[in-house]
Amino acid sequence: MTQNSQETVIGRITSVFGVKGWLKVFSYTDPKDGILNYRDWTLLLDGKRIPIRLEEGRRQGQGIVVRLKGIDDREVARTYCGAEIRVPTEQLPELPEGEFYWHQLEGLDVFTVEGECLGKVHHLLETGSNDVLVVHATAGSIDQRERLIPYLPDQVVQQVDLKGSRMVVDWDPEF
């Protein structure tokens, strides 16, 4: 999930499904069908914001399919393919202490426990065993390398300071 001001991207419309205007959705929520808990969406497509209501949805195989209000034709549905699905950030459930949404970690400056700047969290990857921070170099970092750092709280990630916009990791800069 990525955040843009007061909205968070929770998924993307990927393709049409069937002939009655249903759409396939790639969900960024965990669990994947958590996207169905949000009824009022804002779609961002080609720079345009489109408010729309989720009428119904369900798991279909490995993915999610949805029917949006007012869309009951395959060709009309096709025009929404590629749209980002956004919801107001305030609608996201509050997480327990020490847990974070990905969008909260993106943009944090990353420092080693020794105080060396490794760069800034650009995005995260879901690998199955653990999530991975993709850290891009910045003007103040020790070098210009991109780093992949496992997101393992208490093992690798020692501190997350959202207010200070920084993260401290126990990580060898040579990796």
Q: What would your notes on this structure say?
A:
- The chain has 175 residues and is mainly beta.
- The protein folds into two domains: 2-90, Beta Barrel (Elongation Factor Tu (Ef-tu), domain 3); 102-169, PRC-barrel domain (SH3 type barrels, Roll), CATH 2.30.30.
- Helices cover 5% and strands 47% of the residues.
- The protein has two helices and 13 strands; from the N terminus they run ββββββαβαββββββ.
Class per helix and strand makeup:
mainly beta
> What percent strand?
over 45%
Radius of gyration (CA) equals 19 Å
How would you state the average pLDDT, rounded? 94
Largest sheet: 6 strands, antiparallel, barrel
| Beta-strand segment tally | 13
What is the CATH fold-level name of the largest domain? Elongation Factor Tu (Ef-tu), domain 3
CATH superfamily of the largest domain: RimM
> Helicity level, as a percent range?
under 10%
Please state the second-level CATH architecture of the largest domain.
Answer: Beta Barrel
Coarse morphology: elongated
* Number of separate domains: 2
**What is the topology, as strand order, of the major beta sheet?**
2-3-6-5-4-7
What is the helix/strand order? Answer: EEEEEEHEHEEEEEE
What is the CATH C-level name of the largest domain? Mainly Beta
Note poorly predicted spans. none
Q: Count every helix, treating DSSP H or I runs of 4 or more residues as helices.
A: 2
Distance between the termini: 27 Å
